[in-house]
Every structure is written in C-alpha cells, then in structure tokens.
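Troubleshooting log. The previous structure file for this entry was overwritten by mistake, so regenerating from the original sequence record. Sequence copied from the archived sheet and checked twice against the printout by T.R.
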Amino acid sequence: MELWTRQEAVTPTWCRDGRALWRRSGATVVLSAPLHDEVVLLEGTAALTWELLAERIDEDELVAPIADHFSVDGQQVREQLTAFLEGLLEYGAVRRT
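Regenerated output below.
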C-alpha cells in the first residue's frame, strides 16, 4: 500500500502590517514601518500593490489587476512582485501568511 499525499503548491497570502504608517500624496504612497527611521516612497506599480494589500490577498490574485492596469505581461509582474513583497516584509510593512 502506497502512503503518500499529493502536496499542492500553496501560494502565500499577504496584507499590510497594521503597525505601518502610510499616507497617499498624489500618486505616491509615503510609508513608514515600525522600528525603521527610513521612509519609503511607493509609486506606480508599487503604490497600486500597496492599495491592493488593504485586505488579505493571495499572491496570485495580485498579478492580474497589476498586469491589467499597466498593460504588461502577467509573468513579468509575477517575477518582480515576489521580490517587492519580500522587500516590504523585510522592511516590516506587510505580513505573509
């Protein structure tokens, strides 16, 4: 009898960390995470991604609206999105579950 289970790839979900302070100034999001002195400015795709992170969202679900909004290929978005989210996580502005 073969005992194994198929493991599906689990796509992480992301959301803003409630401790991060931010404000929109025109098309730019000004972001400050706890325990950091540096302020980060998010523009373009980064600002749109921040808006989409208002609610917990699956990483796959982030790709389509960004690709559609900027009329770019979804694979191109996916490659850059993961690195961007990891950077926000390291900065302390988002949470991954």
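Residues 16-96 form a domain with the Arc Repressor Mutant, subunit A fold (CATH 1.10.10.1150). Archived copy saved in two places this time.
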